[in-house]
Structure formats: C-alpha cells, structure tokens
Amino acid sequence: MFSAKALRMMLKIEGDNSVNRITFVSVAAAFLASLLTFAPYVSGHTDEKASQNYEGKIPAGYRDWKLISVAHEAGNLNDIRAILGNDVAIKAYREEKLPFPDGAIIARLAWKYVPSEENNKVFGSEQSFVAGSPTNVQFMVKDSKRYTATGGWGFSQFTNGKPVNEAEPETCFRCHEPAKARDFIFTHYAP
Amino acid sequence: MFSAKALRMMLKIEGDNSVNRITFVSVAAAFLASLLTFAPYVSGHTDEKASQNYEGKIPAGYRDWKLISVAHEAGNLNDIRAILGNDVAIKAYREEKLPFPDGAIIARLAWKYVPSEENNKVFGSEQSFVAGSPTNVQFMVKDSKRYTATGGWGFSQFTNGKPVNEAEPETCFRCHEPAKARDFIFTHYAP
Questions:
Q1: Inter-chain contact A63–B63, Cβ cutoff 8 Å?
Q2: Band of residue B154 on the pLDDT scale cut at 50, 70, 90
Q3: Are A154 and A140 in contact (CB under 8 A)?
Q4: Chain A closest-CA separation from residue B89 CA (Å)
Q5: In this complex, do A178 and B69 lie within 8 Å of one another by their Cβ atoms?
Q6: What are phi and psi of A158, to 5 degrees?
Q7: Phi and psi at residue A122, in whole multiples of 5°?
Q8: Do residues B85 and B104 make contact, with C-beta atoms less than 8 angstroms apart?
Q9: Residues 66-105 of B with CB under 8 A from A
Q10: Percent of chain B, pLDDT > 70?
Q11: Predicted local confidence at residue B171, as pLDDT
C-alpha cells in the first residue's frame, strides 16, 4: 500500500523507536487511510498543502486515556479495536456536546483479531476472539483554526510508533463526512 | 437463567437505580456466571458460605479505568467487550507482576455485538461491528486474605447497576482455574 522506505526518507525521525523520540515530521505526516473507525483502501498522491493539516507526533499518554467504545472490523482489516479519548473528548462525549471543543483528541487502537484457543476450551465452544498483536493507532485531533480544510480535525496514523503517510491527504476526512451531524465522528460512546 | 425477582428480595438495594445507592448486599452478592472473560451457562444452588466471598458493590469510577484489552464473544453471548483495570491492576499488568497485588480490580464491560450499517456504508462492505446496548459488567477484586477459597479473587456481576447472583458461588473461580499460572486471569494486556 505504501513504501515504508520512502516514508522514512520523508520523515525526520530521531533516535530509536521510542514514541517520544519521534520529534518532527516535515512534510506529509501520518494520515493514510486513517479514519477513526475506518481504513479504506485508497490510492492517490501527496498534496503538500493539505498534508500540513496533519500531525506527525503521537499524543503523549494516549494509552492511558478513557474508553469511548470498542469495535470489530472484519474483511481485509480483520481487527478488533478500542476507541479512547483524552479528557476533553471524554467530557464532550459524556455531556453530549457537539461540536467537540478544540483540544479533543480521539485515539483508535487496533489489534489483529485472533481466536483464543485458551478461552474456547473453557467455553467449550469456538466463540472467543481477542486482541492479537497491534496493527496501528490512529488519532483525530480537534483544532478548528488549524485544520480548517478538514472539519477542524487533524488525522494521523502510526504503525510501530512511526507515522504512516499514504494517499490523498483528505481521504480520512472525506470518509468521515457522512458523520458531519456528529462533528465527523462515527463512534458512539458505549455506556 | 435466574430469577431477578428472587434476587432483589435477597438484596438490600436502597433508593433509585444509581450505582452509588446500592450500598450493601447481605447474603449472596453478584457472582453468577461472572468470569472475567467468560459467562458460561451454569445452574446450581446458593452456597451461603462461599457466597460471602463476593462483593455486592460496583467499584467506584470503574468506567474511567484504563484499558487492558478487548474481546468478542460469539455464540450465545454475542457481545463485544472491554477489560479495564484500576491503577493497581494496570501497574501489575505493565510490570508483568504476578500474582496481582491486593487491591487490584479488573472490570469486564460487555455490550451487544451489533452490525453498524452506518460504518458499512462507508466501507462499502458488511464488515463493521460495534458496541450496542450494555449487557453486564463483571469484576474481579483481589484480596488474598478475604477470598481465600477462590484464589484470592472475589467475583461479581452487575446488570443495569444491580448485582446478579446465580448458581454455584465458585463457578466463576472454577472456570478461571485453567489460568492459574497467570493468577487466574485470562486476559492478556493489549499493547
């Protein structure tokens, strides 16, 4: 789908693989087929102007954020996922406030969807599916002044801590447009 | 599977449905088919002695806890779930410390497993499944002195904020026994 090698050349990544060491992404950072709940199969070109809409850094501490909901994508994605939110996003969800305020960040974590033989033994039935190895992490960052071209949201995706850049810069946003009435967010809060 | 009416008579529930108002459960509190990742189909009797091993209160603030992992149970359960941990549990998971220290609490939230027509439209494929209405919440509370008969863990389950009591009191524990090497916890931490 994309050339990791070319990507690395485009990106300025310092030091080791640590998330904190990825300090700056110069051109087109991390936005691929990176829809919050979606990762459609797209191809396209790099639009430098629009790509500046996207962040290249993983938001600090996202793995500690509170849960919004969970989902399973079958088909080619074949993953199981959790959607987390920072405090600003969670507060907006719980208070049902739309649009989301600036500062809200929503994270979509995904892992391979794998059967659990251990669990199935206990259940006595082939019914249990769990999270395997991580696939990628996607973010939507709300900044209504910065991301004017994409509904006020910046989109990014990371695999193994590295930003992933692919396809048309507004691809993420276009797929989110059907959820315009909910500020372009598909995921509902799971009580 | 159980008589909600009989259960309510056994339980002392004050006031409204609010979680905080459920203050005390006298005899057999909340432990049903309430395995952390499991809810097998059991039948049995109430064992008063063993049932005292179980808590009847929902741990405060559990919906804000950090994510351990996610799972899908097909079959009769047909749910999608998230496993959360309080800070003690999360710390033990991340440091890979076993057994879990006293004070660790693990929560298993589950929701109906429902297809998302909205998501499928965007994907152009019948592939998306999300969390529907909540089914129940289960807890494992580590207290090695209190829950000596069940591996140091107390088990409980709540539906609509009310404790659910069913079947043999050690049912939960027996199903968790195959995971003895991991302190009776099946769920692995999802990075």
A1: no
A2: very high
A3: yes
A4: 13
A5: no
A6: -135, 135
A7: -70, -40
A8: yes
A9: 66-67, 69-75, 77, 80-82, 84
A10: 69
A11: 82
B81-108 burial: b if 16+ Cβ within 10 Å, else e: bbbbbbebbbebbeeeeebbeeebbbbb
Q: What is the CA radius of gyration of chain A?
A: 17
Residue A61 DSSP class: T
> How confident is the model over B89-95, as a mean pLDDT?
98
Measured between CB atoms, does B190 come within 8 Å of chain A? Answer: yes
Identify which of A72, A111, A127 has the shortest CB distance to residue B80: A72
Provide the number of CB pairs (under 8 Å) joining chain A to chain B. Answer: 139
- Alpha helix positions (H), B11-116: 48-51, 87-94
Residue among A75, A80, A118 whose CB faces B125 most closely: A75
- Residue type at B39 in one-letter notation: A
pTM over 0.90: no
User: B187 versus A28: which is more confidently predicted?
Assistant: B187
Task: Let me know: does B125 contact B83? Beta carbons within 8 Å.
Answer: no
**The token pair that represents B10 in the structure block:** 């056994």
Task: Give the one of A63, A65, A127 whose C-beta lies nearest to B74's C-beta.
Answer: A127
Collapse the DSSP code of A155 into the 3-class scheme (helix H, G, I; strand E, B; otherwise coil) and give the result.
Answer: strand
Write out pLDDT tens, residues B161-170. 988 865 455 7
Confidence (pLDDT) at A109? 98
Q: Give residue-wise pLDDT tens across range A8-35.
A: 433 333 333 433 333 333 323 333 333 3
CB-based contact A40 B122, cutoff 8 Å: yes
- B61 contact A CB<8A: no
pLDDT of residue B47: 37
Is A188 in Cβ contact with B130 (below 8 Å)?
Answer: yes
Comparing CA positions, the residue from A89, A81, A90 lying closest to residue A36 is: A81
Residues in chain A with pLDDT < 70?
Answer: 1-55, 165-169
Residues B75/B178, Cβ–Cβ less than 8 Å: no
State the amino acid at position A135 in one-letter form: T
**Chain A: nearest CA to B20, how far in angstroms?**
16
Residue matched to tokens 């009989």: B6
Structure tokens at A2: 């994309």
